[in-house]
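go over whats below:
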Amino acid sequence: MKKILIAGGSGLVGRRLTTMLIEKGYEVTWLSRRAANSQDVKVYEWNVENKTIDDKALENVHAIVSLAGCGIADKAWTDARKKEIVESRTHANQLLLETCLRLKVMPQVFVGASAIGAYGLNAEKIQTEEMAFANNDFLSTTCKAWEQSSLLFESQDIRTVILRIGIVLSTHGGAMKEMLKPLLLFTGVKFGDGKMITSWIHIDDVCNMFMYAIDNQSISGVYNAVSPEPVKNITLVKTLAAHHPLIGIVSAPEQALKLMFGERAAMVMQNLNVSCKTIVDAGYRFLYPDLTVAVNDILKNKK
């Protein structure tokens, strides 16, 4: 049984990925700020700020999946919070590699997370992997530093895969959970004019991509983790609204969002049409390429 170590396993993607890995027969362990065991997962303690880690977490590890990092949207982007957002990701990856080198334990593969924020906030052209970091906004520079910390594993001849994750659709967190809330009051909310492109992905597809990266020795490098069918924001809102009685759809103007969320408004106002061609060419086949089918599955099965 292959052992998969997930740093940041208690988050939205980590929890679902853990379930899917266990169903596939893997042994899954987590790194967390507190050691606590569940029936299925052994949890080891680490502290990125203090650079401490339970060495036992790395014993016999086949793959490391790094989802570590504090929530980007949780708090206002003060200078201190921005620093925490970046360092909670980069320092986590650095600590993982330093521990591997110290213990002389090298995993077969390292899979790191990144985000489509690497492409900035607004792009007219379809974005492919080599087009990243052309902007100097906070999300783009964060993703650049984040990915550079993952590539430290590649410098040690460890197969390294980085997934730039789009808007993850799930009822358990993220953008979809927030978009469903006003629908309980019979109202849909579009962002701005609703025309910005949303590059989304079903929670099971992004987790399946992580497993695909673990299992397939032929792939390495950076891949966009988005569906083949990006949609306008208004289309996403209407697709979600199809499952609820609806009085109407109102607009959340860009200026109002900026007043409410400050710089964080950039996250909901992103206008990015991101291509998944590279990972499709690498052999990945989507479970839920169609938005309507994806939303129906998520809401029906409470994913």
The longest strand covers residues 109-115. Residues 79-103 form the longest helix (25 residues).
